[in-house]
Amino acid sequence: MRAPIGNFDQATPAPDCLDELTAPVAAAVRAWSGSVPADQILYVETDPRWADTAVFVEHYGTDLLERSANCVVVAGKRGGDATLAACVVLSTTRADVNGVVRRHLGVRKASFAPMDTATGETGMEYGGITPVGLPDSWPVLVDAAVVDLPYVLVGSGRRRGKLLVPGKAFAQLPGAVVLEGLGKPAA
């Protein structure tokens, strides 16, 4: 199958390649029940040597720069309580952690979660964290600009491989909250 975005050799419906995904991502694809059919979530093989954004888009297609999203894990603290959440923003922006995220979570302080926390709590590889398959109890904050795109490139749970996901599917993830202005222009 041809990928709807990017220059990939092959795009495979995620339900047909569960072995390529981490356990939590594969479980989420198996249990998928949104209005976007699971077979519209596509897996593409990528080479981790080309993970840097500039090299990645040069190799896989310049159209991906405006159609890629990052999923970052944030930790919010209020008193002795800690809250983990995910933020999904276009890769040309950065998550407004100290503004939109902090206010939405109702926490006093918010910051990016340490790498060992992010990977340990998600069961995914650093650099490949995806909003598909996160713990159901987590808020998944999604920038409205991500939902508006026909297809978005995100991590697959591993550094090798990516998912191509219809934008509107992000709003259907467990715990998803679509927020205007979550992604701020990168400085």
From TrEMBL:
Molecular functions per Gene Ontology: aminoacyl-tRNA deacylase activity
Task: Output the superkingdom of the source species.
Answer: Bacteria
Checking InterPro entries in the record gives: YbaK/aa-tRNA-synt-asso_dom_sf (IPR036754), YbaK/aa-tRNA-synth-assoc-dom (IPR007214)
Residue ranges of domain YbaK/aminoacyl-tRNA synthetase-associated in the record: 65-168
* Gene3D superfamilies referenced in this protein's UniProt entry, alphabetically: YbaK/aminoacyl-tRNA synthetase-associated domain
Its protein name is YbaK/aminoacyl-tRNA synthetase-associated domain-containing protein
